[in-house]
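Hi V.,

You were right to ask for the full record rather than a summary. Here it is.
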Amino acid sequence: MKRLGCSILIVMASVVLSAQVHAQAASDIDPDAMAALNSMGSYLRSLKAFQVEAVTTKDDVLDNGQQVQYDTHVDVVASMPDRFRISVNGPRQQRMYLYDGKTFTIFAQRVNYYAQVPAPDTVGKLASVLDEKYDIHLPLEDLFYWGTPKSDVAAITSAIDVGPTEVGGITCEQYAFRQPGLDWQIWIQLGDFPLPKKLVITTLTKEALPMLRYRTRDMTRITTAPCDCGRTHLRILRIAGRNDDMLIIRGVNVYPSQVEAVLVGLPKIAPYYQLIVERRGSLDHLTVEAEAQPGVDAAAYVPTARNLAHHIKSMIGLTAEVVLKKPGELPRSQGKAVRVRDLRPKAER
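Predicted structure:
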């Protein structure tokens, strides 16, 4: 059995429903975003067998209005079109779902309970029966719907390409979609394997309070300077990077995310890069390898690299040698992207 694994982080949140709903024009739908969604669906449907490990985070609102958050681990192993095993482990639920093409079984170990019913012959049909007859929704059931008529892409009223970014070190493209009652975002892995790596669903029909999320080890600082908007309370400045990603080069703190921010903002440059740090003589030397976008004339490589070096120095305060490569020359990784090659002796880093 061919197995292709991917990890998905899913975050569900609730926000205040706007008092006025604006009609979405056709211009709100980016054809590239829809094409990426369809390409991902087609790829998922081409897989005869797959495994997905996910951490889902759900925000719930208590009766008194307080917001609480629950994390749940989900493991899906499927052989299409008629077999799967899904395990769910979280503080509020522990379930095992089993399907063999003929029978569907659900097992709740904590309460020592199981149920078994005859099942139709495909996962898609089973999901419909469970929803309509038993009010059971399979975990991550969108994995079985994307690329099929049940994905309901016709309900999408807005689609935008947010841009390239990383999820767990893997280069992805971020897209944002809107449909009645929902805003949702998806991060799709770039390259030959367009897997969904992260999904954020925001419901627009529940009243709640806004929530800010911070990752530990993010580096920022507090400022007392008045905001341009006129507010004078303490503020947290923009996240500079993570201290576990930080490089020290000639006494300067360098974060790969700073270089990535420069790349994303410049034309003619693709979102692929690698930082190479080495010792030349008595000094550290930083080389930034980047890729030109397809269609960029080779004669533009030198001035584009010079422009990139200028912006990098403005961002990090350090001179870097920039090497602009042809599209596809930088190594691709199906796992965590290797953004830094530190060739210095460990004792000198």
